[in-house]
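Quick start: what a row looks like.
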Amino acid sequence: MVCQHTTQMLLPRIDKRIDDLQYENYNVPTLQHGHRVLVPKDITGGVGSDIYVYTENDYVDGRVEKTFAESTVTFRTIDDAKQVTQLAKLNALLKQLVNGKTATTAKLKIVLTQEQYKEYLYKLENEQDVNELKYGNGVPEELRKYNRMLKAADFQNTNYENMSALHRSGQAKYKYDTVSKAYNKAESLYESALERLGEIWSVSTPTELYELQNWMDREIDFDLGSDRTIGICVDTIPRVRGSRSSRALDSGLPKLSTRLKRQECQLIALREAACNIAFESKQDVYEKTPAMSQKLKSMMESMRRITERD
């Protein structure tokens, strides 16, 4: 029973580690103009010891910490010494993973059954989170050229802004025509970039448009004509998510690290294997919240319907 008690006591730490990994890997931070977005409220503070220090509660995407209490479980009667040894090995690996390490393939194959190992590989190789569906394939190739065009326009616009600032302050004697040409060149580059984005939008299928829109920092509304909100101004031209530009309205992306996902999947697989040996009930097997699971299923169903319409 010592091994079973050890498993029971490990569960809160395991679940906390899984939750931390999922948050770190899949959470999409809300970043506006390169910074986290604050909850609108009046915050006043002085200097020194009176200065206000922001906490997670001050951000619109502030993390709500979960608490994980020790589960009430019923221990199985284990008559097989091999299972006790197996549970001890599982507990040892779980402790290792809780401390931020990963398990080798060889060790996983020793402590997991063939079926459990196949299930582990399936979860590792397939989407387990909504944001893996949205961003797992990386920036669409069509947007890469657009991004390069946009960066060239931003570079030229920065040149114009520097020239204009030096001209106004008297630090440099640029002619009016020189400054004007710099501005016109930047505007022309933004116009070409937006035309390119319009071409991409015009030839894309509904499925492709869905994926492309996921990668943009604002709604793309070419169909609105004169009422559209996007334009060739440095502040109104759409930007690809992940952009470091201070003009990006929303540049946040999930991390989607293979290393972090491997740790998550290993913890879930080892936790389930340990619970199967240690406890009567399988209800303690860790899963994402029902809301998240349902959201993933709904998104996959929506994408299937969009594909069928193409």
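That is the whole record. The mean pLDDT is 88. The two ends are 58 Å apart (CA to CA).
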